[in-house]
Amino acid sequence: MTGIYDQHLPKTTANYASLSPLSFIERAAQVYPHRLAVVHGDANTDIRYTWSELYSRCRQLASALATQGISKGDTVAVMLPNTPAMVEVHFAVPMTGAVLNTLNTRLDASTLAYMLDHGEAKAVLVDGEFAAVMQEALALRESTSPILVIDVVDPLYKGESRLIGTQTYNEFLSGGDANFAWELPEDEWDAIALNYTSGTTGRPKGVVYHHRGAALGAISNLLEWDMPKHAVYMWTLPMFHCNGWTFPWAIAARAGVNVCLRRVDAVSMVNAIVDHGVTHYCGAPIVHSTLVNAPPELRDRLPRGVNAMVAGAAPPATMLEGMEHLGFNLTHVYGLTETYGPAAVCAPQQEWAQLSLEQRAQKNARQGVGYHLQREVAVVDPATMRPVPHDAQVMGEIMFRGNIVMKGYLKNPEETEKALAGGWFHSGDLAVMEPDRYVRIKDRSKDIIISGGENISSIELEDVLYRHPSVQAAAVVAVNDERWGETPFAFIELKPETTVTEAQLIEHCRQYLAGFKIPKHFAFVELPKTSTGKIQKFALRQQAKAQMSAV
Is Ligase set as a keyword in this record (predicted)? Predict the structure, then answer.
């Protein structure tokens, strides 16, 4: 039966518009046309655009793409580092109705070829640094559909590069109209971006984002961080990773400054923070540890009060403590590619200020509570689909539902149905719910070590190992054991100019761990990492298996 509130109250353009982050840049350009939007380089070589200039360039690029037949539902791939062009494509591509596919710049040619084919890319923009691998990828494609290739020439890149496309980015841009009349999507559920998972087992999956989720994810980041107007944001997080956790769109909403970095190292980060007055940046724990472990002469240049956001892995307490010593304000968030990056936050409580530094670090290491505009995050028993008790003991799987969850996996209905079964997105991460209803992750389901029938959390072991003064990074995986089923194998990366023996690490672990949890095997290596700083445990499992087979 139709109620009174369903009669004569139509949805029209006067009272409804689709949620989309495209609105953010339009407003920034209108309200703050002369505010700085993008800076790339140092004082002598930098490239700078205001919000008015950036908006015009985005419209010009959108127009140029449209003249090449790019339209709604098409895919435009990009192989770009954190440069001004990468900021521009986040607005220009969806202005045409097309979908932006940001490619991981560290992938091999065969994987890139698969992604180009699977996503049915109509065009690809390529930075000169990655032209060689992209040229190989284009040659390896199975599809015969043509791809428009545009060369992006970054004047700040001094390494070897080549041109593989039909024209350069600036030439292509010049053919567009800076007053291009773009429109918001008719349906905010329309796709805005395609992001491929790491694909450590089997083919990578194509995660599809929608305009609504991109807008609400960006706004949630601003809310959780209390990011002020005109914040100065340093791009240490790759924009190809979950669309930079939606921050290209979030910075536009605040009319802030995008400080672009091609390379992430201690010198580049410190120089950018000091030269440009950086107020905010994001990254995996290894990014923040780069500053914590930087030489004193670099650390001494850093101002206090910089806001940092960490995700990508459960951060070790030593890193959290190190950031506090620097005087940085650290916010710990948690999420996955399927949740647009962060969708939960360890929201700090006022009473934590009375705790010791170590106790505060333990509190802040938790994954926390759901984002403002995410419907819910919970720890659920996957067998019964019921929440686990809030007792910090019973483990379940972290699950999300709400506005900041992907549409699904491209061309993969089986995996989409599996991932969204029961009305929840299944993360695959195991956790407990603590009495204050904060989530604390225990492990990936595949990373739990079952030794003699007892569950051992690799994260717990790694946190203890990180506390040794010589340990730069640690990763623990399971190896088969005839007696116990599985035992922990620890891979250790040492800090420069330090040494430690296996016996000393075992003695260190005895101070914090029950005997059955202490790693039985150690290897001292440089840990393999992804482009976003995550340690590649699948590679370490292979190394551990090979090493045990050789014994």
Answer: yes
